[in-house]
Amino acid sequence: MDRRWTTRPQLVSYELSEASANITLNRPRVGKALSAAMVDMLDAAIERGLREGARIIVFRGAGKHMCTGFDLADIESSTDGDLLLRFVRIEQLLQKIYRCPLVTVAIGSGRVYGAGADLFTSCDRRISLPGTSFAFPGSGFGLILGARRLATRIGNDTARRILIAGRVIPASEAARLGLVTDLSEEADLASRVARLATKAVRLPARTVAALHSVTTSRDDDADLAALVNSASYPGLKDRITAYRQAIVQQRARSTDTPVVDLVELPRLSAAAAFVDTGKCRPGH
User: Fold this and answer.
1) Is the confidence at residue 268, as pLDDT, over 90?
2) What share of the chain is helix, strand, coil (3-state, %, to 5)?
3) Where are the beta strands (DSSP E) in the chain?
4) Which of the four pLDDT bands, split at 50, 70 and 90, describes residue 253?
5) How far apart are CA 129 and CA 190, in angstroms?
6) What digits encode the pLDDT tens for the residues 177-195?
7) pLDDT-based confidence at 39, cuts 50/70/90?
8) What is the pLDDT of residues 67-122, one digit of tens each?
9) Cα dihedral sign for 19, 132, 162, 226?
């Protein structure tokens, strides 16, 4: 049985097909940057999948990019407290995905940056399409978000090096490091996901849930505390603003920028006003 549901105003879509819950991020004009409303809708979609008995949840982005990061379209009117609350809600969403009692799959495409890369990292199976790149820029403005989950996937030392460097990671390197579990061509993607869905229902749901519980290394309270401590240090908004200004200046000097902004280039995200103020409209 298929059940389709699209949130209003179509920021996130949900479809249950047999045992597979397909959750799609639907803001292609802004690179699927995560607004507060979008985070709430993703949370609601996951809860719906659990209620309806899904055995596998598949996350993907409509259009070229899976998710280019954290939407900062309204940063000028935001306070440090506003930003802190939004980062906390994202961390809570990531923890929910990471501890899901069923199989979770992320399909990486285009740019998978910031909060989008953290969402990707939180899933069990992490499929990358050709040309995908990954980046974790939060440490550039002092934010500790998702570091433990990344370290679980690729090792403590490697995660630390990547977070300190803030560089873009191509799909081939991400696969070598273990961040990506599967490299797939677009033409093979549907069959690959179908095979994962078949495997997901091989065991009873309670057995899969138990396996997730005993094989998932996590400390939710410590991760949330680390985030809050880093984000509550005075001047969060100023740090983000200074970071984006440094990126703009670096891009003005070179077209080969070795570090990344919260989101990618103009018109891919509302937050890309960092580079092209006013050309992206929030909520589209």
Assistant:
1) no
2) 50, 15, 35
3) 2-6, 12-17, 20-25, 56-61, 103-108, 111-113, 125-128, 133-135, 169-170, 182-183
4) confident
5) 12
6) 999 999 999 999 999 999 9
7) very high
8) 999 998 889 999 999 999 999 999 999 999 999 999 999 999 999 999 999 999 99
9) negative
Closest residue by Cα to residue 148 from 97, 216, 218: 218
Q: Which amino acid is at 194?
A: A
Give the C-alpha separation, 169 to 162, whole Å. 9
Residue range 215-228, pLDDT digits in tens: 998 999 999 999 99
On whether the CB atoms of residues 36 and 89 are closer than 8 A, the answer is yes
Q: What are the structural domain ranges in the chain? A: 2-200
Burial of 231 per CB tally in 10 Å (0-12, 13-18, 19+): buried
Residue 71 backbone dihedrals phi, psi, to 5 degrees: -75, 115
Rounded CA separation 243/137 (Å) = 10
Q: Which of 68, 44, 128, 103 is nearest to 271 (CA)?
A: 68
Fold (CATH) for 2-200: 2-enoyl-CoA Hydratase; Chain A, domain 1 (3.90.226)
pTM for this entry: 0.87
With contact defined as beta carbons under 8 Å apart, do 100 and 123 qualify?
no
Buried residues in 80-106 as b, exposed as e (16+ CB within 10 A): beebbebbeebbebbbbbbebbbbbbb
Is 105 in contact with 198 (CB distance < 8 Å)? no
